[in-house]
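Input structure tokens:
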């Protein structure tokens, strides 16, 4: 059994519509260990978001194997995958995906409510701890639409943290933020990684990717490079992908 948190072998994803077949990901193989901070970097249309959706149990591969904690996800039903996704995975999206006109507390608590064995009254310590991790505990009673973009993303990170997941997926987390707020969000992700959380970041921006410790470069549905950040001089956005 693999000791890797994530192990991908010859992974492919093909979409078919009528007579048209589109290959989004083809023959991709890699491993990610627990505690890593990995960026999946590539231009629009490269397949990086499709790869993240499969790694985060939002979609299944057409071919190949995906082992999570040594278990092949093809062996699980959709309901079992949904349970794993809620318990083992946290998501941070570009558009925040917070409930409008709902309090910060309620937004962060939401993943805990999917577990029928957990009572709402016992959730507050976990919610407060998650908000403290992203320095947003002072906004706990604010409505989400009273927050700035950077604050919304920090709340979204707290929501991803509240279940203490094995891995946090961040899909273009700085895409809707100004540069100052974006840097703050990336520093929070670095801090969480230093505390032991596994982070998988999807981005097309070099300055965002360089906050990770390892970068998988994706182009045309395949991985063209897999490098530790410290061993590669990062070029301007897109240069390495030409």
């Amino acid at each position: 059994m693999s000791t890797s948190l994530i192990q991908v072998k010859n992974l492919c994803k093909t979409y078919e519509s009528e007579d048209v077949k589109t290959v989004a990901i083809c023959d991709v193989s890699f491993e990610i260990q627990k505690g890593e901070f990995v960026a999946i970097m590539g231009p629009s249309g490269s397949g990086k978001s499709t790869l993240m959706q499969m790694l985060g149990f939002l979609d299944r591969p057409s071919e190949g194997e995906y082992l999570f904690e040594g278990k092949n996800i093809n062996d699980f039903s959709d309901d079992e995958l949904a349970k794993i996704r809620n318990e083992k995975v946290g998501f941070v999206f570009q558009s925040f995906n917070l409930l409008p006109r709902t309090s910060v507390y309620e937004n962060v608590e939401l993943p805990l409510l999917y577990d029928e064995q957990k009572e709402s009254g016992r959730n507050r310590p976990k919610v407060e701890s998650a908000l403290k991790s992203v320095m947003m505990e002072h906004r706990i009673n604010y409505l989400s639409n009273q927050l700035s973009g950077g604050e919304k993303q920090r709340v979204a990170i707290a929501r991803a943290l509240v279940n203490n997941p094995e891995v946090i997926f961040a899909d273009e987390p700085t895409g809707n933020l100004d540069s100052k707020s974006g840097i703050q969000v990336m520093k929070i992700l670095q801090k969480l990684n230093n505390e032991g959380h596994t982070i998988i970041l999807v981005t097309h921006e070099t300055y965002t990717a360089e906050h990770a410790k390892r970068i998988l470069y994706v182009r045309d549905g395949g991985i063209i490079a897999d490098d530790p950040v410290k061993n590669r001089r990062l070029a301007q956005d897109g240069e390495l992908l030409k």
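The longest helix spans residues 179-194. Helices lie at 48-55, 78-88, 104-113, 124-133, 149-161, 179-194, 206-209.
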